[in-house]
Design brief:
By secondary structure, this protein is mostly helical. Helix content is 55%, strand content 8%.
Length: 93
């Protein structure tokens, strides 16, 4: 299987169409080999839009959900940073 091609298709068909616009997230998801993080018998499923079992009680999120989660987390961290910055600036006065 051509994992690089599957990775590109995953980003183009699952990540970008689902409101993930952060360039860093797209770049990382375009380069990190998901197939290296799943059991060998599931490698060919790495880029499908589905959660993959890693062990009895652990799953790898689908690419779309992972990208959305990281995007929301990034937005939340940025928001907290700006709120802190504004609070700090108002304390300085």
């Amino acid at each position: 299987m051509d994992f690089a091609r599957a990775r590109t298709a995953m980003v183009d068909s699952q990540v970008r169409p689902n409101a993930v616009t952060d360039f860093d997230i797209i770049r990382i998801m375009s380069t990190v080999p998901r197939e290296n993080f799943v059991p060998a018998d599931l490698r060919e499923l790495s880029y499908l839009d589905q959660h993959l079992p890693l062990s009895d009680n652990r799953n790898m999120l689908s690419p779309m959900r992972l990208a959305q989660l990281v995007s929301l987390l990034t937005l939340r961290i940025a928001t907290l940073f700006w709120i802190s910055l504004v609070e700090l600036a108002t304390l300085q006065r």
